[in-house]
Specification:
The chain has helices at 120-124, 153-167, 170-175, 182-201, 208-230, 238-264, 271-300, 306-342, 345-382, 387-411, 416-445, 454-467, and strands spanning 4-8, 11-15, 21-24, 31-32, 43-48, 51-56, 62-64, 67-69, 71-74, 78-82, 89-93. By secondary structure, the chain is of the alpha+beta class.
Amino acid sequence: MNELQVNCEGRRYRFEQNQVIRIGRSTDNDVVVSHPTVSRQHARLAYGPDGWVFEGLGRAGTFQHGSAVTRVLLHEPVELALASPHGPVIQLEPPGPASPAPATGHGEPVPAPSAGTGTAAAAADGGGPLPPAGPFHTAAMPRSPVPPRIGSAAEARDELASAFQILVPVRSWLTDPGWRQGLRLLVIAYALLPLVFIALFASSGNLTTPGWAYSLYVAPLWGVAFWLLIRPPEPYGKQELLIGLGIVIWVMIWMSVVAVHINSAANPKSLGGAILVGFNEEITKALPILVAALLLLRLRGVKLDVRMWMFLGTIAGLTFGVREASQYTTLAIEHIAAAAMTHSANAAVLGALSFAYRVFVDGFQHAIWAGLSAFFIGIAVNYPRRRVQLIVFGVTIAAVLHALNDWYLSNFTSPWPWIVLQALTLLLFLGYTMSAASIEHKVRRTPLFRGESMILDRFTETGEHHRS
């Protein structure tokens, strides 16, 4: 039988020749390799006319003895490293002839003793003569280790260079495909960017510059966190990327043209003014989600999963937060400068904390509110029976939470009511990230949400009544 044996990450598999074996990080593979550098669909094994063949599929690459390979014909057991020369090892053992006889230290088979030949073992048992004494027998005796010869200075330098190359393999690092992994590049960028900010902006007189720099620095990290929390289902690609870019552009323009002017007319210290600000800002973030969802449905007949709309809502919120933080951090810096003039340590600490809060948390808060409203917009677009009610409900939840947040900040000296409100908002958002798929499943099965829009139905009935 042409059975193939595969060993990887402590697990052993056996496959028949009529199977095509898939290898990769994705859990639907036949051989699952959990290492993060391995491609989701990394390689496959198939039996052909010449025997078992390994074929690389993923972009991460496969290595044999440190060299990249894409196709290996298995005539003998092979060890391959996945993703990099130092990546997880997979052992492939094809069927072969019977194993050869054990070998000596010099690679020659050990002859079996004949009936009439005296050996050391036979002598030990009393069944044969003792080995003869003499100079030839002394060669079989253990030898004392010979001290190594001390070489020249050039040889010592070569040995030192060789040891350094082994211990600090710079050349191997530079050619390692692990650099293609986004996480390593992200670590480099996030370690160096604060130093780059100092180098570029140390002489800037614009107080919004630190707010822009550090808000943009933090926003991608929150974006990654939201992606991991919401986990939009595949497939996704260029279409979703373009929608996200359009949402960012919309929010930036709408804030400058519309939202800022409405906010300037409101008084956030009053509850009514705070509610006006809440609705103004949440509508700013919700509109591009709604427009994108309706255009995608009308023009291409495509409905995205509500979790994707929820994630895109967080992108709208992060965009809003970055733009807003760039303005509020100006006040925080002025607060610090005033504290330095008056030698007030408490005021300086408060200013520094306010700056940190704006650049680290402002975008996160706006993203949570926008994610909640975007979830209901996604439900409304995909299941139009209660479309308007769902949109209003989602935007209202976000706007009320937003308004209470601003009202507490403007009227309470104690931060604890504000912290409690933030905790409740987080619980609500995280609850929807965990149950978004099950809620959509129940909505799909409930007649209350299925069918055409109720408003369109009533509009059609009214028109027919007037015509009659």
